[in-house]
Specification:
The structure is a single chain. The chain is of the alpha/beta class. The protein has one domain: TIM Barrel, CATH 3.20.20. It has 16 helices and 9 strands. The chain has helices at residues 12-18, 38-44, 50-54, 57-71, 84-88, 109-113, 123-135, 149-158, 166-174, 178-199, 216-237, 254-261, 274-280, 292-297, 299-313, 332-343, and strands at residues 75-77, 93-96, 100-103, 141-147, 203-208, 243-247, 265-267, 285-290, 318-322. Strand 5, helix 11 and strand 6 form a beta-alpha-beta unit. It starts with 11 loop residues before the first helix and ends with a helix. Bound molecules: coproporphyrinogen III. Coproporphyrinogen III (CP3) binds at residues 30-35, 44, 50, 77, 79-83, 100-101, 145, 161, 207, 209, 325. Homodimer. The record marks 81 as: Transition state stabilizer.
């Protein structure tokens, strides 16, 4: 079934994005580098704060490689964060230990006009990409990433995480300059993703974690339209760029997102019935969507959930993943069970 990738080493995950059906499917996990790994918790102590960790190429390279060494996943994902982009735009971003991200809120046009993307502030990130590519096994795909404009804007407007994103939606729907923030983020995201691809990333994922917070008209304007611009411009700038989109909780709007944005792969959240997705979503590789809680719980119900996903996706361009990030209390043995079951 393989066409191969002329001129490229045989990277299964990149192969799926390029059009191959591969059995067993390549596997990686969102948030595979992080707190569920004892070796991550150990090196995390070496940095004074989380952004300092992300901007230290020694530490970020090591964190990226840890899950590859332990489990041999088919892809490594750059260890970084979606909030490095607001940092490079000049926003004040910090992680209050145990409380999640904090930013100085951006709530008017003057604050938007003050933002300037300076990629020099992310030089350590691109250096990490180069080092990881140099140290990775040749068959392992390296993924870069960015947050989508809507999700990054939501953190910038609220100044933190939120359940309902009230201030962001109020401004977005009022139509009083929020689009300018989205435009700035589209420009910065294209630049940031292009620099990762040019430093050695094989493909990139765009995380729109809060896409599901919008109504359908808002989803069209603030999720689909900016993502479509990013994909078009990135493919113009970096020929052959491969892009996975993750509009989390998009529900019935997943097919529209896949058709309209031009992504090569679509990451499905835990709530999506795969039998529906296979029929409704054409012409893209699908990725997903094991419930991270199944992985945490383990046991025979984990095996059954893995088998059901494999069964539903047989014959389809598919990348095995979770429906969202792995949770910190997940036992490391359950992850070993997952990888073995998918490949066995
Ligand atoms: C919304 C979002 C963020 N960051 C990210 C998203 C989109 C994906 C999603 O929806 O989960 C993306 C992200 N964050 C991180 C990665 C690294 C690569 C990987 O997936 O392994 C990636 C791809 C590391 C991280 N980013 C963060 C950690 C934990 C902090 C630490 O280790 O000290 C890690 C490993 C911190 C972070 N960063 C963010 C939050 C809300 C938090 C705090 C919540 C939490 O603690 O999980 C913003």
């Amino acid at each position: 079934m393989r066409e191969g990738n002329p001129g490229k080493p045989d990277r299964a995950l990149l192969g799926v994005l390029n059009g191959d059906v591969i059995e067993p499917p390549p596997i990686w996990m969102m948030r595979q580098a992080g707190r569920y790994l004892p070796e991550y918790r150990e090196i995390r102590k070496r940095a004074p704060n989380f952004l300092g960790f992300c901007f230290d190429p020694d530490l970020a390279t090591e964190a990226t490689l840890q899950p590859i060494r332990r489990y041999g996943f088919d892809a490594a994902i750059l260890f970084s964060d979606i909030l490095t982009v607001p940092h490079a735009l000049g926003s004040n971003v910090w992680f209050a230990e145990g409380e999640g991200p904090r930013l100085d809120p951006v709530r008017d046009t003057a604050a938007v006009e003050a933002l300037r993307f300076d990629p020099a502030k992310l030089a350590a990130v691109y250096e990490t990409v180069r080092r990881v590519r140099r140290d990775l096994p040749a068959q392992t795909t390296l993924l870069g990433f960015a947050g989508a404009p809507w999700t990054v804007a939501a953190y910038m407007v609220e100044g933190s995480g939120s359940r309902d994103w009230v201030e962001t939606k109020r401004w977005a729907y009022a139509n009083t300059g929020f689009d300018r923030l989205i435009d700035r983020l589209v420009d910065a995201t294209v630049e940031h993703l292009a620099l990762q691809l040019e430093a050695g990333a094989d493909a990139v994922q765009i995380f729109d974690s809060w896409a599901g917070a919008l109504d359908p008209a808002g989803f069209e304007k603030f999720v689909i339209e900016p993502t479509q611009r990013i994909v078009g411009r990135l493919k113009d700038r970096v020929p052959g760029a491969r892009i996975i989109g993750f509009p989390r909780q998009a529900g019935a709007l997943y097919p529209r997102y896949a058709d309209a944005t031009g992504v090569d792969g679509l990451s499905l959240d835990t709530s999506v019935p795969l039998n529906w997705a296979v029929g409704a979503i054409k012409n893209v590789a699908l990725q997903g969507n094991l419930d991270p809680l199944r992985l945490l719980a383990g046991g025979t119900s984990l095996d059954a959930a893995i088998d059901a996903i494999r069964q539903a996706m047989r014959g389809r361009r598919f990348i095995f993943n979770l429906g969202h990030g792995v949770l910190p209390p997940t036992p490391i043995e359950h992850v070993a069970q997952l990888v073995e079951r998918v490949r066995g």
